[in-house]
Each structure stands twice: as C-alpha cells, then as structure tokens.
Write a structure and sequence with these properties.
By secondary structure, the protein is an alpha+beta fold. The two termini are 27 Å apart. The strands form 4 sheets. Strands 5, 6, 7, 14, 15, 16, 17, 18 and 19 form a 9-stranded mixed sheet that branches. The radius of gyration is 21 Å and the shape is globular. The protein is 25% helix and 30% strand.
C-alpha cells in the first residue's frame, strides 16, 4: 500500500473529470484521475465524435458560463495544437407563443449573443430542405457549431498528463472513506487524497452511496441516430448546413436536435433529447425504440431530404436531474468531497468551465461562477445524507 497522499483524486475520466483534473494539474496540484474502464471506452456519456456547442439557452447562467467556456475551448485548442471546434451556426426552432422559445430569444438579446432572426417567408432561402412548423419562430446562434468530442477528450487527458497528472484506468472504485484525508479503494489498490471529486456520470449515485449521499439522478439510454441523405451533401457541414434544435416538437415531449453530416459522410445525426431509464451496467439490455419512432415521424414531416429510417444507431447515456440542471457542489457533510453530476445530456460543451469551478471547490477556493443554480440543497427533500 502506497503512503502517497494526493492533493486531489478525481473519479471518472469522462470529459468533466478529465477537465477537472487538467485544471488541478495546471494549478500544481498533485492529482490522480481514476477510471473504471480501460481507455478509451464507449460505456458512458463522453464518447462519440461530435457534440453541439452553443450560447443559445433560456437561462442567463448557462449563457454566461458558455462565454467563458468558448474562451477555454480556444485555449485548449492552442495548448493541444488540435482543432476541437468547427463553427456551423445553430438553428433554433420553436413555438413563438410559448415560454421556452421566447425566453431563449430574450436571453440571447440580453447577453448580446450574435443572432439572426429568420422570418417565415425567408426561411427556405436560408435553410433549404427543412420544413418550419406553422407557428414556429426561427433564429440562428451564429457562433455555435460542432465540438469534436473524442478528439477533445484525448486532448484534455494528454494536456493533463503533460502537466504532471496521473491517470489509472481499469480501476473500479469499490469504497470511499471520508475524512480530512479521503481514502479511495479500487479493485487494484488504495489511494489517499486531501480532496475528492466525483465525476462518475451514470455511476455517480453508486459512488455517492459510499459517502452516505443519495441524489435524485435518473440514468437514461439514448439512441444516437444517423439518417441517410437522399442526395449526399444536402445536410452536410461542407455545404454550411447548421446544427439545429427543435423545441417542443409536435411528435414528442422533449427537444429534437441534429448536427450536419460530418463524421459519417452522407449521414446526418438527429436525436431525441431523452431516452428510457436504464441501469448503467445493463445499458445494452435496454431495447426501447420509442424515441426512434418519434424521430421517424419528425424527419418525415420536417427533414424531407433524409431517409426516415436510421442507418446507424449508437448508444449513449444521460444522467438526468429533476430540473435538468447540473449538480456542482460540495458534499453537505464533507466539504472536501466535491460532486459534478447530473449533466442531463447538455454538459459536454461546458466541461472546461465546469472543470475549472470543480477544481476551485477542490482547492478550497471561491468558485469563479455563481453555483447556486447547481446546489445539492435544491433537492433537500431528496438528498439524503446518512453520515
């Protein structure tokens, strides 16, 4: 058993944990990053080739965090010498008379985010091969685009190691003992840290149980669907087709989003922003395709240039909070145990700034953003601490 004590141990080497570890190492903290699977892997929420990056949000606090997140992504690109972001713009469509779309418009204008509003009559000139639903408004977040996800994760982990950080993969955590020095036991060893950050995605609640905490997190399996273009290039990134979000679609309760054909030539990624509940270790046994039925109906109605049968279906997981906002907070009993969880399927783009604030909490600093929207205490009736 090693007598070594780390300044911080981070559990979970997805994008949030890797960014947290990177910031800690840059701040000269002796840091250990633990991952249960051998890297790279596709078991969690950070794999796959692309994600949307955007400032278009209904909530001020997300839009403001994204201002810094863009700066940090650019810094990571410079440090890694790798392109991580491609600007495409983001088309947002939604019912004009409903709160969600109106609030998003107001937040964009208030925060002076570059945006283009598209009138119904000019919509098809600017956005061909998309049928705008009657009663829907449309705007374009012109700074939005595509993040290269796998590439970003590799880059951040590489920079973390360049800054002296240690990664141990294939080490599943089986116990956590809180204290002034936290003891973490894995299948292979025992590690000690003055602080601990839990960024374990779908496995967060299992680990927090070890630290006497249960949060209202739901894990859902997402079918990540790619749809064939009837005419190759119709919806491609090279033809300047944007990412899109359809708010409040007629076909379902949750948003539908898409990215231009890019990673698979001739195939456009279009997904439903929710799935069916699953156990994280049993993900592939979850066979529900209700979300695909919703997408098929939407594509038939609104994206006539796509074949309305998915050509490729991959799997991902979301860890969802009741209000779909993140958890970024200290354990209610142990201030040196930090929790980053419940990213609810929209956290990847925030990871550089999330990593920064989690590292600040781990170092006992005042975080550089107001974290009250992400407090554990908002779930007071659900958050149970048994210690």
């Amino acid at each position: 058993m090693s007598t070594e004590v780390y300044d911080c141990i981070v559990i979970g080497a997805g994008i949030q944990g890797s960014c947290t570890a990177y910031h800690l190492a840059k701040n000269k903290q002796k840091t250990l990053l633990l991952e249960q699977f051998l890297l790279p892997h596709s078991r969690g929420s950070s794999h796959g080739q692309t994600r949307i990056i955007r400032k278009a949000y209904e909530e001020d606090f997300y839009t403001q965090m994204m201002q810094e997140s863009y700066e940090l992504w650019a810094q990571l690109e410079r440090e890694a010498g790798v392109q991580l972001y491609r600007r495409t713009g983001l088309l947002v469509m939604g019912p004009e008379n409903r709160k969600g779309f109106s609030q998003l418009k107001a937040t964009m204008e208030k925060n002076k985010i570059p945006v283009e509003f598209l009138e119904k009559k000019e919509f098809n000139q600017h956005i061909p091969n998309v049928n705008l639903t009657d009663g829907n408004g449309a705007l374009v977040d012109t700074t939005a685009g595509v993040l290269y996800a796998d590439r970003s994760l590799r880059a951040v982990q590489g920079l973390y190691q360049t800054n002296g950080g240690v990664i141990k993969d294939g080490e599943k955590v089986i116990d956590i003992k809180p204290g002034d020095v936290v003891t973490v036991t894995t299948g292979s060893g025992l590690y000690k840290g003055r602080s601990l950050v839990i960024t374990a995605g779908p496995w967060a609640n299992k680990l927090m149980t070890c630290a006497g905490l249960q949060l209202p997190l739901k894990v859902v399996k997402i079918n990540v669907c790619y749809w064939e273009e009837k005419i190759p290039g119709t919806y491609s990134v090279d033809h300047q087709f944007p990412c899109f979000i359809q708010m409040e679609p007629k076909e379902g309760e949750y948003d539908i989003y898409g990215l231009p054909s890019n990673e698979y030539p001739g195939l456009m990624k279009v997904c439903y922003h929710m799935g069916s509940e699953t156990e994280p270790d049993e993900r592939d046994k979850q066979k529900d395709r209700g979300d695909i039925d919703i997408l098929t109906r939407y594509i038939t109605r609104c994206l006539p240039g796509l074949v309305p049968v998915p050509a490729v279906v991959e799997s991902c997981m979301y860890t969802v909070t009741p209000d779909h906002h993140f958890i970024l907070d200290c354990h209610p009993t142990y201030s040196n145990i930090i929790i980053g969880a419940g990213f609810s399927g929209h956290g990847f783009k925030f990871s550089p700034v999330v990593g920064k604030v989690l590292s600040q909490l781990a170092m006992g600093q005042i975080p550089s953003h107001d974290l009250s929207p992400f407090s554990i205490h908002r779930f007071q009736s659900n958050a149970r601490s048994s210690l």
